[in-house]
Amino acid sequence: MVSGNIRSVLLHLRLPFSLFLLPIFLFALSQAPAINNQKAILVFFILHLFIYPASNAYNSYFDKDQGSIALLKTPPQVNKSLFETAVILEWAGVALALLVNIEFAIAMIVYNSFSKAYSHPKIRIKKYPVLSFLVIFIFQGFFIYYACYKGVSSNSGQFSIAIFIAGMICSCLIGASYPLTQIYQHEEDTKRGDKTLSILLGIPGSFVFSAIVFSAGFFLLYYYWGTQHQLFKFYVFIAFAIPLILYFLWWFYQCMKDGKNASYENTMRMTLLSASLMLIYFGWLFFIS
């Protein structure tokens, strides 16, 4: 029983899923004017081993999904141990964040609060399609980028339009994938009373919306690198984006032929491809910075 509980908790933490958000940290790291190495290491571990897994655990505990969820085709039954683990990870992350600075610790508390509110049955932001999108768009994108940028910097200076645009690029890349991660869960979300963005848009609309938001991020990235006279970095992004765009178009076509192709397997292929390509691109940015 104990070993079963431990296995269930570890699976619901979805630690590999934290790596899907690593590009935001790498982008912030590559753009920070002066990096404090000790703080950068702390920020990395706090987010990817404490804050993000705690968020995943809360989401799994409150949702109690019977069907497939991100990285778990057959999720094990949740129990009280998962909630307790989420609480421990959440506040351990906040405590460690104090070693970075007070601002970063406050940012983690704010992020954790919205993360819980997203899934908690008494608030359940997830059931409001537009509001849930805005929470993910802002807090997993711009907010985390800026928290990382300030957290890893020895001297981050004043808030600037460049920081704002970089953060919005992150928001667009996160926001573009958001309805597609919900596209195979329409039946279960409807049973639970959650009208997600993907349900509101429908399968075709989810793809169109994703394309629009990704295009916005695409043009922001062009503007960002153009203002810094480093357009070659944008052209490298195009090279990495081409396989992703091709798969997106193929999947869209398949879904238009048969809605059953809006499946867990195809969603995970899209997610893994997108995460891998963005991880390589933003890792490259950090490497050359």
Automatic annotation (TrEMBL):
Record keywords, A-Z: Membrane, Transmembrane, Transmembrane helix, Ubiquinone
Gene Ontology cellular-component terms listed: membrane
GO molecular function: transferase activity, transferring alkyl or aryl (other than methyl) groups
Stored InterPro entries: UbiA_prenyltransferase
UniProt entry tagged with the keyword Transmembrane helix: yes
UniProt entry tagged with the keyword Transmembrane: yes
Subcellular location: Membrane
Membrane topology listed for this record: Multi-pass membrane protein
Domain of life where this protein originates: Bacteria
Transmembrane portions of the chain: 6-28, 40-58, 88-110, 130-147, 159-178, 199-225, 231-250, 270-288
Protein name: Ubiquinone biosynthesis protein UbiA
Organism: Pedobacter antarcticus 4BY
